[in-house]
């Protein structure tokens, strides 16, 4: 399925070669021949596999999942032969019942005998219902998978236990091993996750007919490899209906980062929506389980197979998070709840996406060239992206490198030390003598410079990409924690599913709050999106007036540097959504912003925006006062960004429903501001002594251990600093490619 995703390399190469005139070298023939070979393989695969061909539909799931019943219904609908492994293969092979065989040979021998029977069986164009234990035998599952689509019937655990009690089944492998049925079913789940191609969430109370229809829909989606595509926010639909629309697959959108016309990639179709019953199935699930189910709906298996995606998610949200709940929700006071997004290795919400995104990126890229990731950071992204990409495998790090550009004097001392200290063999930091807006704009211009990007591709076999939230692969994982927060409130009994909540988010680049919008589109009942700004309140002004105005507006440095942003990139995605995907309007508006530093949207769009959004801003004094009052009232320390959100939530939320305040960073990163807010006089200390002093207050949340360890590092790492000149930034990019990627590759 992945072969069809390499088409973009052909297009990139053609574009680069046609736009520049430089001598080719040894990288070029390798790059081109690999691209075209993969394109031909894609054509071959697609021509030999289709739903109406000889592939089997294979139903997998625990005992009592309804595989046999659902299989019969699907067989009738499709006019296909129906094969039940228990009745039609095992019992006929053994000339005895499954329960008799299990009793005769025991658990381990039964699995071997069962596997051998399946290995000796072959079928095509059939519907096959597996036994609950088939997935525990690798060889037989590989045998079945060669000519079949494996669909996992994911039934709620308690539903299975209830069904098995009624059925009084006595032929489950391991049933008499001393494990409880609940433990046995949980143990089995690891094998089901290993093999499935598509998953069907079976709602409590759903009829077999409804499950059968869902299976057929999932099979159709799996086979339709071209069904889920992405367009640029500046894409203009061709007047000639026969003209081909310029679309990208998920893997292409992730690799390219920014669209060639300067727009951002968005799904061509609507976001997938879960039913009420499917959401309720996730109330008792872990963060990892929720992430896998939601992201499976948003990423086609042709781009990332479900089993591989699951492995990535488990790796991303593993031991590197200090809290097992990953993104827990804490009741603060009254109707306010704190969504703690700072338990990752670098102590900010960016970890929730940047521990996963590098694995997604590494999976999507072809093996034929190097990739250089360019990132602009207003503080937290820098260390998070360096940390995330440094966790790739050794082979992946030889082909994927990262440069993060940060405003040399525009972030906290701790953030700078954290960014510089996060440098690794494939991850570097460059300070820029300007602000975040310059860094972000410069990177966008570098991407649009086809002469430069083409030169890097042909001369060094290196392609540029991004890991800022302009990259879809970076933004998408953020949807999960907004959905998970709501489910946690349901799980903890604060609300029932379907009750509305508001969310209040400190907002600079609009990515975090946009992810909450996407969570609502998937079915989470969010009532209002409260946009919280600091003194750089261009977004608040825009939401109130519809006028985005940067004229005579200077960036102010605040206690909350991660939202010290004036040009909000992801706003373009939301305006595109509100304007019914009017790419022509987006081009007009953002060209006006670029050339004239302001734009105004029509009244009808302002009204549409204000139906869901409210906004306000917080002064520096109000920020410090909120940190102080919250600590005195509850013993909880807010970081400055979260304090901005709390001030705005207090002011704007009507208290008729819960409000979830996103806590986007741990206070340990901003110790001087916290000490000033709490009126602690001993501010002029080392970072580690400041944190130890704050730790002595025994406040919530406790000190972030990974951040504390960072302050103990005595060795100061070197980093480069450059002037605010796009040509100087381009020179740094080329030099690092020469010295690091190509130099190490040639060694």
What does this structure look like?
Belongs to the threonine synthase family. The protein is of the alpha/beta class and 747 residues long. Helix content is 49%, strand content 13%. It is built from 34 helices and 20 strands. A six-stranded mixed beta sheet has the order 8-9-19-14-15-18, with helices on both faces. Strands 2-3-1-4-5 form a five-stranded parallel beta sheet, with helices on both faces. Strand 14 (501-506), helix 24 (511-521) and strand 15 form a beta-alpha-beta unit. The longest helix is centred in the first third of the chain and has 22 residues, at 27-48. Residues 1-50 have low confidence and may be disordered.
Attribute tags:
5-stranded parallel β-sheet; 6-stranded mixed β-sheet; 13% strand; Threonine synthase like 1; disordered N terminus; 34 helices; alpha/beta
Question: Widest sheet: strand order?
Answer: 8-9-19-14-15-18
Q: Determine the mean pLDDT.
A: 89
What is the count of DSSP helices, taking H or I runs of 4+ residues?
34
Poorly predicted parts: 1-50
Largest sheet: 6 strands, mixed
Rounded to the nearest angstrom, the radius of gyration is 27 Å
Class per helix and strand makeup = alpha/beta
Helicity level: 40-55%
Distance between the termini: 34 Å
The multimeric state of the shown protein is single chain
Strand percentage, roughly?
5-15%
Kindly state the number of beta strands.
20
Globally, the shape reads globular
Helices and strands, with pairings:
Blueprint: H1 7-19, H2 27-48, E1 56-60, H3 67-78, E2 81-84, H4 85-94, H5 98-105, H6 107-119, E3 126-129, H7 138-145, E4 148-154, H8 157-167, H9 181-195, E5 198-201, H10 208-223, E6 230-232, H11 250-256, E7 265-267, H12 276-281, H13 287-298, H14 306-316, E8 329-333, E9 336-340, H15 351-354, H16 357-364, E10 370-376, H17 380-390, H18 394-397, E11 400-407, H19 413-421, E12 427-432, H20 436-448, H21 450-460, E13 462-466, H22 472-475, H23 478-491, E14 501-506, H24 511-521, E15 526-533, H25 538-545, E16 547-549, H26 571-578, H27 583-596, E17 598-600, H28 603-612, E18 613-617, H29 620-634, H30 640-652, E19 659-663, H31 671-677, H32 687-695, H33 705-712, E20 720-722, H34 726-746
Parallel strand pairs: 1-3, 1-4, 2-3, 4-5, 9-19, 10-11, 10-13, 11-12, 12-20, 14-15, 14-19, 15-18
Antiparallel strand pairs: 6-7, 8-9, 16-17
Helix pairs in contact: 1-2, 1-21, 3-10, 5-6, 6-7, 13-14, 17-19, 23-24, 29-30, 29-31, 32-33
């Amino acid at each position: 399925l992945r072969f069809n995703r390499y088409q973009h390399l052909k297009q990139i190469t053609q574009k680069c070669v046609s736009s520049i005139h430089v001598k080719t070298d040894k990288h070029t023939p390798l790059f081109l021949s690999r691209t075209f070979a993969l394109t031909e393989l894609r054509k071959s695969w697609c021509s030999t596999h289709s739903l109406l061909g000889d592939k089997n539909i294979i139903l997998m799931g625990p005992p009592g999942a309804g595989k046999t019943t659902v299989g019969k219904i699907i067989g009738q609908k499709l006019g296909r032969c129906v094969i039940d492994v228990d009745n039609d293969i095992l019992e006929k092979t053994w000339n005895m019942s499954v329960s008799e065989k299990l009793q005769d040979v025991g658990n381990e021998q039964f699995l071997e005998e069962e596997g051998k029977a399946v290995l000796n069986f072959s079928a095509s164009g059939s519907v096959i219902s597996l036994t609950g234990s088939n997935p525990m035998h690798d060889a037989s599952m590989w045998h079945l998978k060669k000519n079949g689509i494996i669909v996992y019937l994911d039934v709620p655990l308690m539903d299975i236990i209830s069904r098995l009690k009624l059925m009084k089944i006595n032929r489950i492998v391991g049933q008499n091993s001393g494990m409880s049925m609940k433990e046995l079913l949980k143990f089995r789940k690891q094998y089901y996750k290993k093999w499935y191609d598509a998953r069907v969430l079976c709602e409590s109370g759903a009829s077999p007919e409804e499950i059968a229809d869902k299976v057929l829909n999932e099979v159709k989606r799996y086979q339709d490899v071209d069904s889920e595509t992405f367009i640029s926010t500046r894409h203009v639909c061709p007047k000639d209906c026969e003209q081909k629309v310029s679309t990208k697959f998920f893997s292409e959108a992730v690799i390219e980062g920014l669209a060639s016309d300067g727009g951002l990639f968005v799904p061509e179709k609507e976001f997938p929506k879960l039913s009420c019953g499917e959401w309720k199935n996730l109330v008792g699930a872990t963060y990892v389980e929720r992430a896998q189910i939601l992201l499976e709906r948003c990423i086609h298996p042709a781009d990332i197979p479900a089993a591989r995606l699951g492995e990535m998610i488990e790796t991303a949200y593993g031991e590197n998070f200090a809290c097992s709940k990953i993104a827990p929700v804490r009741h603060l006071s009254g109707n306010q709840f704190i969504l703690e997004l700072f338990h990752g290795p670098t102590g900010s919400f960016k970890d929730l996406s940047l521990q996963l995104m590098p694995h997604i990126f590494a999976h999507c890229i072809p093996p034929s060239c190097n990739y250089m990731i360019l990132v602009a950071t207003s503080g937290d992204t820098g260390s998070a992206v360096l940390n995330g990409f440094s966790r790739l495998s050794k082979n992946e790090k030889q082909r994927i490198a990262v440069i993060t550009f940060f405003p040399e004097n525009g972030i906290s001392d701790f953030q700078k030390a954290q960014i510089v200290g996060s440098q690794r063999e494939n991850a570097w930091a460059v300070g820029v003598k300007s602000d975040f807006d310059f860094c972000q704009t410069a990177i966008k211009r570098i991407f649009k410079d086809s002469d430069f990007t083409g030169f890097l591709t042909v001369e060094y076999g290196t392609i540029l990409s991004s890991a800022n939230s302009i990259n879809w692969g970076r933004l998408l994982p953020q949807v999960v924690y907004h959905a998970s927060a709501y489910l946690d409130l349901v799980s903890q009994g604060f609300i029932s599913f379907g009750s509305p909540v508001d969310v209040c988010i400190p907002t600079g680049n609009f990515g975090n709050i946009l992810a909450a919008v996407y969570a609502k589109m998937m079915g989470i009942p969010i009532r209002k999106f409260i946009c919280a700004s600091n003194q750089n309140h261009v977004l608040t002004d825009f939401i109130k007036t519809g006028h985005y105005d940067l004229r005579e507006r200077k960036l102010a440095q605040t206690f909350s540097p991660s939202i010290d942003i004036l040009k909000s990139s992801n706003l373009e995605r939301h305006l595109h959504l509100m304007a019914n995907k009017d790419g022509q309007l987006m081009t007009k508006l953002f060209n006006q912003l670029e050339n004239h530093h302001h734009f105004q949207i029509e009244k009808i769009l302002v009204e549409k925006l204000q139906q869901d959004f409210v906004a306000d801003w917080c002064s520096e004094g109000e920020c410090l006062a909120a940190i102080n009052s919250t600590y005195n009232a509850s013993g909880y320390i807010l970081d400055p960004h979260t304090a901005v959100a709390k001030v705005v939530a207090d002011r704007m939320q009507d208290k008729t429903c819960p409000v979830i305040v996103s806590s986007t960073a741990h206070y340990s990163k901003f110790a001087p501001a916290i000490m000033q807010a709490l009126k602690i006089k001993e501010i002029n200390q080392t970072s580690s002594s400041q944190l130890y002093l704050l730790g002595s207050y025994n406040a919530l949340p406790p000190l972030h251990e990974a951040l504390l360890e960072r302050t103990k590092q005595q060795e100061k790492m070197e980093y480069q600093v450059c002037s605010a000149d796009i040509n100087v930034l381009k020179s740094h990019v080329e030099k690092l490619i020469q010295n690091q990627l190509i130099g190490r590759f040639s060694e």
